[in-house]
UniProtKB/TrEMBL annotation:
Coiled coil: none annotated. This is Amidohydrolase. InterPro entries: ACMSD, Amidohydro-rel, Metal_Hydrolase. Residues 3-312 form the Amidohydrolase-related domain. Pfam families: Amidohydro_2. Transmembrane segments: none annotated. CDD domains: metallo-dependent_hydrolases. Keywords: Lyase.
Length: 314
């Protein structure tokens, strides 16, 4: 069963709600075919069929319900999750979803986590690489990690589009450069804080091959011994507790490096729909097949690891 773990869907009503609460970045998500109209869904299903993708797991980031105002955050999170639950109900053979949480409000996030997983049937929860300037090693996230660990559930991590909170990553490079840097930094925060080892039953799934992690792990192993000596285990061991989607915009050498460093058994198919659509969407699959990987690795990445990881039977 071929599952795309990295795909987005936003209704215009949901984006309008975010905008009404002060999110000024919704325009980048509109008009891309990622809506919930019949026309958009029909076109989406045609692309999935062409690429041989059976199922997509939907997530809202970076259009996440994260607001300093708790009432707004809770309302937006509930709306997002209700919309996803409804579309999964309508198309159970096409979609599953991760629950969005009203971060940074911990108690409200735990309440919505319970509703999302127990009542709405979500596969896990999703969070951005930072939340309104807070890193993922912020203590506010610990109770959520603990609950996901207790449940043996999934945390899907996706860039926030915040330029890693750096003024040097400006609007001309927010997504081309900033997003993989956000992946790298957030996962490193988690590793140094010992989150993967302290919550071994929580499955972390990260975007974009983990950013630069495949290129940096040997350096991190050596440098953390003196720079972050309280890191509980080598980064190269910590990443073996995580999974990573294959979104790399068709760059074969990046995928081969990730297989060599992270392991083919840690990689799962992602497309980043709608930001990769049309031929780029199909290439999200074909580049895995053409990259010169062993047949067993290709099969793991495209067809066998994700169903087991997500608990989805064909």
């Amino acid at each position: 069963m071929r599952i795309d773990v990295h795909a987005h869907l936003w209704s215009e009503a949901y984006l309008d709600l975010l905008e009404s609460y002060g999110n000024t970045a919704t325009a980048v998500h509109r008009g891309l075919g990622a809506g919930s109209t019949d026309k958009e869904l029909d076109a989406r299903f045609a692309q999935m069929a062409k690429a041989g993708i059976d199922l997509q797991v939907l997530s809202t980031p970076p259009a996440s319900p994260h607001f300093e105002n708790e009432t707004n955050a809770v309302d937006a999170a509930r709306r997002a999750n209700d919309e996803y639950a409804e579309i999964v109900r309508r198309y159970p053979d096409k979609f599953r979803a991760y629950a969005s949480l009203p971060f940074p409000h911990t108690d409200a996030a735990l309440t919505e986590l319970t509703r999302g997983l127990d009542e709405l049937g979500m596969l896990g929860v999703t969070v951005t690489t930072s939340v309104l300037g807070r890193a993922l090693d912020d203590p506010a996230f610990e109770p959520v990690f603990a609950e996901l660990d207790r449940r043996g559930s999934i945390l899907y991590v996706h860039p926030a589009g915040a330029g890693a909170e750096s003024s040097l990553i400006n609007s001309t490079m927010t997504w081309s450069v900033g997003a993989p840097i956000e992946d790298t930094i957030s996962l490193t925060h988690l590793i140094i804080a010992g989150v993967p080892s302290r919550y071994p039953n929580m499955t972390i799934v990260a975007s974009h091959l983990g950013g630069a992690l495949p290129m940096l792990l040997k350096r991190m192993d050596r440098q953390t011994t003196w720079e972050a000596p309280n890191t509980p285990e080598k980064p190269s061991l910590a990443v073996r507790r995580m999974y990573f989607d294959t979104v790399a915009h068709g760059l074969d050498p990046a995928l081969r490096a990730a297989v060599d460093v992270l392991g083919a058994d840690r990689l799962v198919l992602g497309t980043d729909f709608p930001y990769q659509s049309g031929e780029a969407f199909t290439e999200a699959v074909t580049y895995v097949q053409r990259a010169g990987l062993p047949a067993e690795a290709v099969n793991q990445i495209l067809d066998t690891t994700a169903p087991k990881l997500l608990g989805i039977a064909e």
